[in-house]
Amino acid sequence: MSPRDEIIHSDEFGNKAEAFEAFDDIPTNPNLSTTIGDVINTRYGRRDVLRGALGVSATTALFGTSALVAPTSANASTAADSRYIFDELRWGNDEAHHIAEGYNADVLVRWGDPITADAPEFDVMNQTAAAQSQQFGYNNDYVGFAEIEPGRGMLCVNHEYTNEEVMFPGLGRQDRDGFKGMTRDLVDIEMAAHGGSVFEIVKSAEGAWSVNRNNPANRRITANTPMTFDGPAAGNPRLRTSADPAGMTVLGTINNCAGGMTPWGTYLMAEENFHGYFWSDVVDSEGKVDISAQPEAESMKRYGVPGRWYAWGQYHDRFNIDKEPNEPNRFGYIVEVDPLNPDAMPIKHTALGRFRHEGAEAIVAADGKLVIYSGDDNRFDYQYKWVSAEAVTSENSHFGSTLLSEGTLYVARFNADGVVDWLPLVHGQGPLTAENGFDSQADIAIDTRMAADALGATPMDRPEDAQPGPNGTAYLMLTNNSRRKPEQVDAANPRPQSNFGHIIEIKEDGENHSATKGTWDIVVLCGDPTIAEVGARWNPETSENGWFSSPDNCAFDDSGRLWISTDQGSGWGRTGKSDGLYSLETEGDLRGHSKLFFRCPVGGELCGPYFADNSETLFLAVQHPGTDGTKDLAGFERDSTFEDPATRWPDFEPNMPPRPSVVVVTKEGGGKIAV
What we know:
The chain is an alpha+beta fold.
């Protein structure tokens, strides 16, 4: 049985969200000779980390000058020294969201809410693709904001994936049952619920935000929205299909996870697990999909195509690789959207590479060039960044700028001496030649993973969001590795089936994000610091509320303070904590000190976060609340589906689980967050 089929048929995963988390841990990288863990072993010493006792010099490197002592109690306070001035929230688990005292956390928009003037009201029992294409989509992930004027702007939200067992009353898990209950109408609703939402929000005199449905620029971007390509792969034969013989127009964007905003206010959608949407009718005697006869077989294997997570390929030929083998090559890119111009066709920027993009965080470097960091969210895959050829100017700061098509994509190699090398993915350099299967820069753009393999980049443990920050720093979220085997234990992941993750800090040479070298260090090793076997490392002032697991998304406020959101998937039961938002000190004596600010409803994942309005407003995305691992919580021992009246949740509509939502955080009485 294939790893995918083992996951699908396992009783461990009660819903599709939990199964997707497990899919991320199936490696496709054959180049596993040197992992980031191996490098950390060399740098810090494997036995020291495993026994939870780093040496004094390594401890100082990780945590400043603080000594390593037991974690402080929940009532301890370091507020006088912290840059994050708020009373820490207590951890817990229930059906509601919670925030630190003195702050408001209000739901702004939920799945199905109308976002255009003509959109119908949401009716869960009578859904249609036409209605969903004008309503807020499903499973909201990245949140961005394009300000029009103070107190008014366009909210940009990614919709990562759909859970048919939660969306459609009585349907149940379809990927476990051969999609027997799926119809073309249901598939079309799913396709309309993917992509993104762009709509105006306004702030009242009292400080409350609301949706303005009447802006004609409000719109949904879906799996059927026409888009164009630019960059080296645009028009390449490998992007051509029967419906698009020019290889220049593709329908839709899918599985948009974390994203970004450009300095000129355009919205970057990052296509992550695109492989899961493709289908094949060719199955071998063991029940595995047989891609051996496919012209793109090698590339498909490296990218995990086809995943067969959905039944789209049964009703739309373009998602069936037997009929359209090039269609997967048209997904896995960074998509640029102009929030203010609904007539501007979104652009897939092939120069930024094709992989399972997690994040597209942009910054103008010290030398004026545009830099975009992006991780490849799969176990043992890589960290990337894009550097534009030209500096950012008033003339090229616009939608569709050549800054996103003319430049260099780099992949990271983390060395044991604490140096990070950014390796250029440029045709003709090193092994990236026709003799090694790369006929042009287009092949590197399409098969970015394979090019990075050839360069010897460092295989990372599920790189998620990467946030560039002040003074040439960048913070990399490495979320977990739940399928780690005992023989793969290393200093970065000091236990089998690692579930906790870590955060790496990069300092680019010359404090310049476009540099090709820098230094790297670990800020924290996540998990419960009271359990020696976990090997977690936090600043000793971190309380029992403050430590966390599985860092995912991150953001800086306008004071340069780092905030981390978490995604433990169904494994939150291993920590006993629901996902949430944490502040994290990155410098000084409190480096590695974390505090809990906001926590999700049980079963939810926290995405975003995004600061706007001079950091007086914080947008958070609560994805799939009531879904992941709810059966593990006393009093909620059930999967969150419509199949049983017992799935009703307190304080929610009858027989209706809580919906994915964007939450707006403000300070009571106004002012900046956490000051």
